[in-house]
Design brief:
Layout: H1 18-24, E1 32-33, H2 38-41, H3 43-47, E2 50-55, H4 75-86, E3 90-95, H5 100-107, E4 113-115, H6 133-147, E5 154-157, E6 162-165, H7 171-185, E7 192-197, E8 200-205, H8 211-220, E9 226-232, H9 238-243, E10 248-252, E11 262-264, H10 267-290
Parallel strand pairs: 1-11, 2-3, 2-9, 3-4, 9-10, 10-11
Antiparallel strand pairs: 5-6, 6-8, 7-8
Helix pairs in contact: 4-10, 6-7
Length: about 300
């Protein structure tokens, strides 16, 4: 949500989190199609002793839908992810903008770890936020009043955050909604921030540092030499791509500038990648049995 030049107030002056990171993301590029350069892309995978696989959910494992409540993970993909989660040389993480409990209920892969609200919810600190829930609730109600009457603009309540959806709205409606949201949040920048997504704006506590920080924190607790693999489709995933200087980063969707190294077209191709990943893991395990046995990663609850 970019502040127009020459406007009064300070909507952009205190944006230090996502906004500062967003400026770094300008150094983007067009990614290579993953399957077209598979051998090159997966050379590090074949050399790795262990991997940490991070997956976004909506738009990555399942197609985007206008109603987020209608989204479900299909059973074949769930079984596939379950096998990866059980592999002794892999750890599996789901990183989503959904609430952690909602994410767990929709994915239901045992042995995997779940990060909700872009990494804000880890399961340990869901209730230890500096911003009171009542402030978020008040902001949601007051913004809902301001946006009332704009066609195809609606608010999703996540409790610790809320999302303004505008998929299907006309350009004038989107511009009006953006202006009203910026105007409201300008005086609350010390407590709340806005994260741009695909046809959404999410309002979160300012302490929410995003998926990049969440992934960085996870990797800091892992043994050295772990190969990170991150797959995501949204603007929110760009912060994770930017953090992973090494490893395999994959953007899902129409090819466009990104910090990811490689691209897949849609969730169907993500599932193809998971199948190939299973083969690579199986071959690596076979090689380990005939040579030096590699250490196992500590599994996460």
């Amino acid at each position: 949500m970019r502040q127009k030049r020459g406007t009064s107030g300070k909507p952009g002056s205190n944006r230090e989190g996502y906004e500062r990171a967003g400026r770094r993301l300008r150094r983007q590029r067009s990614p290579q199609t993953l399957f077209a350069c598979w051998e090159q892309a997966t050379a590090g995978l074949r050399a790795a002793t262990n991997i940490a696989l991070f997956l976004d959910f909506d738009g990555t494992l399942v197609p985007l839908q206008r109603d987020p409540q209608r989204v479900r993970l299909d059973e074949p993909t769930r079984r596939q992810l379950q096998r990866i989660a059980r592999h002794p040389h892999a750890t599996l993480w789901f990183v989503s903008g959904r609430r952690r409990r909602d994410l767990i209920q929709r994915v239901r892969v045992k042995g995997a770890a779940y990060l909700g609200l872009h990494g804000l919810e880890t399961g340990a600190r869901a209730n230890s936020l500096g911003v009171p829930r009542r402030l978020i609730s008040l902001a949601r109600r007051e913004i809902a009043v301001r946006l009332k009457g704009l066609p195809n603009v609606w608010i999703e309540d996540k409790g610790l955050s809320f999302v303004v959806h505008y998929r299907g709205a006309t350009n004038p409606a989107v511009r009006r909604a953006r202006s009203l949201l910026q105007e409201y949040l300008a005086s609350r920048a010390s407590a709340l921030r806005v994260l741009d997504g695909k046809k959404v704006w999410e309002v979160l506590p300012r302490e929410a540092q995003g998926k990049g920080k969440a992934v960085k924190d996870v990797l800091a607790e892992m043994p050295k030499g772990v190969l990170p693999i991150y797959i995501g489709d949204d603007t929110t995933d760009e912060f994770a791509f930017a953090q992973l200087k090494t490893g395999l980063t994959i953007r899902v969707g129409i090819r466009k500038p990104t910090r990811a190294k490689y691209a897949l077209r849609d969730p169907a191709e993500v599932k193809q990648f998971l199948s190939r990943l299973e083969i690579e893991l199986s071959e690596n395990a076979g090689a380990a049995r005939t040579g030096r046995e590699t250490p196992r990663l500590r599994k996460n609850p």
